[in-house]
Design brief:
With about 150 residues, the protein is mainly alpha-helical. It is about 45% helix and about 10% strand. Strand 2, helix 6 and strand 3 form a beta-alpha-beta unit. The two termini are about 20 Å apart.
């Protein structure tokens, strides 16, 4: 891909050509994805986290408030849109950092593809809790990908 030397996924789904976000979520956690789909079909959006819900996950008040202010809840259309991937996508090296068990499936997919994997047992918002550790892991992974 022009301008890209590597791809990094951090506690996230890995896009699959022409699959929707809901399709991917169903391979990761069918029960959770079906619950989300039901919520979206009723007109709900995701994510819609509150300050109270995020307090335990993002203890730093400023980081938590910034996360809430930048949150962009999405409707059903976002989650049911097929994601096309360019052919070049597959030629670019990639790595995966897993924080939570919720992303065990994509981490295993990455591992099966021979990508470097780093597992940092933590919360999903660990980038906001310990940015130095996450930055170090990303830099280490970049070193593995370029050599």
């Amino acid at each position: 891909m022009p301008g890209f030397n590597s791809r990094h996924f951090v506690d996230a789904s890995i896009p699959q050509d022409q699959l929707t976000r809901l399709d991917m979520m169903k391979t990761e956690s069918r029960a959770w994805a079906e619950q989300l789909e039901e919520h979206l079909l009723k007109g709900g959006c995701f994510p819609e986290w509150s300050d109270t819900e995020l307090q335990a996950h993002i203890p730093n008040e400023a980081h938590r408030q910034q996360t809430i202010s930048e949150m962009n809840p999405r409707s059903l259309a976002f989650f049911t849109e097929p994601i096309p991937l360019p052919k070049e996508w597959f030629a670019v090296p990639a790595g995966y950092i897993q924080f939570t068990d919720a992303y065990a499936v994509p981490a295993s997919q990455a591992e099966d593809q021979g990508w470097p994997i780093t597992r940092l047992p933590a919360g999903h918002f660990h980038m906001l809790v310990d940015p130095v550790a996450v930055s170090d892991a990303l830099i280490n992974m970049l070193g593995q990908l370029v050599h």
